[in-house]
Design goal:
mainly alpha; Arc Repressor Mutant, subunit A; 0% strand
Length: 203
């Protein structure tokens, strides 16, 4: 039974994501409407064309919200006494969880470039790199993280996690290292063990 008065835009987009990821760009608005349990007109009132629906569905970020998650996970990023290893490990786990959800959407975007206008990087990417860069800059100054250029470190960190997701999808024979081992090794590359071993100064 149609229920146009109660369905939300996010419910429509969730249905569209599922249909497009299953059938590709050849999927129809009728199939999306059927999955929602509404009439086609209800979908078109919210998204005037199939292209608009496709773009909105592929641009949607699965919950939880990416930016809010970054801010929640790194409340200590401005405190010099924070647990750098713990923060990096927790953040890496959450980034992998979200990245695995977002990867199929990214692949669909890359497969259909004509639908997207990529004049500038997605805001969530620039925000992630900004916060990562801030974190690394702070802890490089304090000697808790190796390196000299925090912007480079942010890109290496993000790229390393994206690489793991790529291997999970396209190179299963190379999965001789578990995700937890991978994260631990990545954190080891960045954290300065000498700084971690130093006792904290007390006033």
């Amino acid at each position: 039974m149609a229920r146009p008065q109660s369905i939300t835009d996010e419910e429509v987009l969730a249905a569209a994501r599922a249909v497009f990821l299953d059938k590709g760009i050849t999927a129809t608005v009728e199939e999306v409407a059927e999955r929602c349990g509404v009439g086609v007109a209800t979908v078109f009132r919210r998204f005037p064309t199939k292209a608009a629906l496709f773009v909105a569905a592929m641009d949607s970020t699965p919950e939880p919200d990416w930016e809010r998650l970054i801010e929640d996970l790194w409340p200590s990023s401005r405190r010099t006494g924070s647990d750098v290893r713990g923060a990096l490990t927790a953040f890496a786990r959450e980034m992998l969880t979200l990245g695995r959800k977002m990867y199929p959407l990214m692949q669909m975007r890359l497969s259909n470039p004509g639908f997207f206008h990529q004049d500038k990087p997605p805001r969530r990417l620039t925000k992630t790199l900004e916060i990562l860069g801030e974190f690394f800059e702070l802890h490089m100054r304090g000697g808790r993280v190796r390196g000299k250029n925090p912007r480079v470190a942010a890109r290496i960190w993000l790229g390393a996690l994206q690489h793991l997701i790529f291997l999970e999808n396209f190179a299963k024979p190379l999965q001789d290292v578990s995700p937890e081992e991978y994260i631990e090794g990545l954190v080891d590359l960045f954290c300065n063990p000498e700084a971690a071993a130093k006792p904290r100064k007390t006033r």
